[in-house]
């Protein structure tokens, strides 16, 4: 019995000693951080991450992964639960920088904030691609006639940021992007992209609960010059010759109709058969498609009605220029346009310049500014008051003279009414 009691006491004492040694071994390693001592830390061999703590800043530690990666982490109890908040890789931050960030986090914790929760909310927040989809669905498609231009801009200039969390975008990122687009795509495009980005963040902040900053706010825009490019008379023969070689009939007809009506690109692309009045030879662009929220009447000269009549004979859907995309109609044929310009040996000519070309030929044919504005559907409020008093006959006459002049200059007078020039 005595032996049993003594054995029990000895075993109990041995157990206490072993537990104490285990606790002693489990105590976190702590020393004064320096770059040299951190570099000398060994990779754990047990397959688990190990931690060493700084003796200067509360909670600051270095986590060493089983593959040897070292990162600064803040380990604190926040609201009664342990939190590990990543600070940054040791290779990216100095000890001084890590201590500064850890102190800032400690101050935030003392004020009742939770940096770990903030990081989790950032992790769960929208990507830029998701923000853009929300912007399109809840705002642009309902409020903006030019929302398709927004889609094009995003796909061309912002698509590489689509997976980035919106909080990760910084003002310097946006300034750098603005400069890059200005150099590669022009100042106008650069300014429009920044305007789109700023509008997206403003909507997120004002309407959808985003509490962060707008990185595109107050970016100084490039100074823009009014674009004056249009097709010159001596360029028209090459242009029409290149257009005649285009194998895609839909593209060819679309460009001809754009040139000979002066209508906006998006309106021509989405032209529907129900919008045409064959008897009056007019095309009415409904207010919901028009930039100024008012119906626009477009004159159809004989060359255009002939093109449309030929297309109508084989049409199977609602759109004059059908496409394979979601919209069901043609959308910005950039590749074909570049192909045609290359054949015509024309530079710095955009699809929108076709609209300006008709206006310039109308002016050359002696049309007044109000008549030109009426023909092109300009949205100026003051100008509209003047246009409203104009009959369509002088507008039709001016458009016919201008389109005849273009066709004659281009050597395609056969498109004129009755084949006469």
Q: In the CATH scheme, what's the topology name of the largest domain? A: hpI Integrase, Chain A
Give the CATH level 1 class of the largest domain.
Mainly Alpha
> What's the number of extended β-strand segments?
8
Main sheet: which strands, in order across?
1-2-3-4-5
Supply the CATH superfamily name of the largest domain: Intergrase catalytic core
SSE order, one letter for each helix or strand: HEHEEEEHHHHHHHHHEEEHHHHHH
Helix content: 40-55%
Radius of gyration from CA coordinates: 35 Å
Q: What structural class do helix, strand and pairing data support? A: alpha+beta
Tell me, what's the shape?
elongated
Instruction: Tell me what portion of residues adopts beta-strand conformation.
Output: 5-15%
What are the low-pLDDT stretches, counting only 5+ consecutive residues below 50?
1-25, 381-389
Name given to the CATH architecture of the largest domain: Orthogonal Bundle
Please, how many helices?
17
- In whole angstroms, the N-to-C terminal distance is 131 Å
Question: How many structural domains are formed by the residues?
Answer: 3
Mind explaining what this structure looks like?
By secondary structure, the protein is an alpha+beta fold. It folds into three domains: 26-123, Integrase, DNA-binding domain (Double Stranded RNA Binding Domain); 128-207; 233-419, Orthogonal Bundle (hpI Integrase, Chain A), CATH 1.10.443.10. Helix content is 51%, strand content 10%. It contains 17 helices and eight strands. The protein has helices spanning 2-26, 35-39, 95-110, 115-124, 128-143, 147-158, 171-184, 187-207, 236-244, 249-261, 265-269, 302-312, 334-344, 352-364, 369-376, 381-387, 392-409; strands at residues 29-31, 50-54, 60-64, 70-78, 81-89, 276-277, 282-285, 296-299. The strands form two sheets. The chain has a five-stranded mixed beta sheet. It has a three-stranded antiparallel beta sheet with strand order 6-7-8. Helix 10 runs antiparallel to helix 12 (302-312), helix 14 packs antiparallel against helix 15 and helix 14 (352-364) crosses helix 17 (392-409). It is elongated and about 90 Å long.
């Amino acid at each position: 019995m005595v032996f049993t009691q003594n054995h029990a006491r000895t075993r109990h004492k041995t157990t206490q000693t072993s537990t104490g040694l285990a606790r002693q071994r489990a105590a976190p390693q702590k020393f004064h951080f320096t770059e040299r001592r951190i570099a000398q830390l060994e990779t754990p061999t047990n397959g688990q991450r190990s931690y060493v703590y700084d003796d200067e800043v509360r909670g600051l530690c270095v986590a060493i992964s089983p593959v040897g990666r070292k990162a600064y982490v803040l380990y604190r109890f926040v609201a009664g639960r342990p939190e590990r908040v990543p600070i940054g890789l040791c290779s990216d931050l100095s000890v001084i920088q890590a201590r500064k960030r850890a102190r800032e986090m400690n101050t935030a914790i003392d004020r009742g904030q939770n940096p770990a929760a903030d990081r989790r909310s950032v992790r769960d927040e929208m990507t830029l691609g998701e923000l853009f989809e929300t912007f399109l669905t809840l705002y642009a498609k309902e409020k903006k006639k030019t929302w398709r231009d927004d889609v094009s801009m995003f796909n061309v200039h912002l698509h590489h940021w689509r997976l980035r969390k919106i909080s990760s975008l910084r003002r310097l990122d946006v300034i750098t992007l603005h400069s890059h687009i200005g150099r590669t795509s022009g100042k106008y495009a650069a300014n429009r992209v920044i305007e789109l980005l700023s509008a997206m963040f403003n909507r997120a902040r004002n309407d959808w609960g985003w509490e962060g900053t707008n990185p595109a706010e107050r970016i100084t825009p490039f100074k823009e010059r009014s674009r004056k490019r249009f097709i010159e008379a001596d360029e028209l023969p090459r242009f029409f010759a290149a257009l005649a070689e285009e194998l895609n009939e839909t593209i060819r007809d679309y460009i001809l109709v754009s040139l000979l009506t002066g209508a906006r690109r998006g309106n021509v692309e989405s032209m529907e058969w129900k919008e045409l009045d064959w008897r009056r030879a007019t095309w009415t662009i409904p207010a919901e498609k028009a930039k100024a929220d008012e119906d626009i009447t477009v004159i159809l000269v004989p060359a255009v009605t002939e093109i449309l009549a030929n297309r109508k004979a084989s049409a199977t859907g609602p759109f004059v220029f059908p496409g394979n995309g979601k919209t069901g109609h043609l959308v910005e044929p950039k590749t074909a346009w570049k192909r045609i310009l290359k054949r015509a040996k024309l530079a710095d000519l955009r699809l929108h310049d076709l609209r300006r070309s008709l206006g310039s030929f109308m002016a050359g044919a002696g049309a007044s500014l109000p008549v030109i504005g009426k023909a092109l559907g300009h949205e100026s409020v003051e100008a509209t008051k003047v246009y409203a008093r104009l009959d369509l006959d002088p507008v039709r006459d001016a458009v016919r003279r201008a389109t005849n002049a273009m066709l004659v200059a281009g050597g395609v007078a056969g498109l004129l009414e009755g084949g006469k020039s």
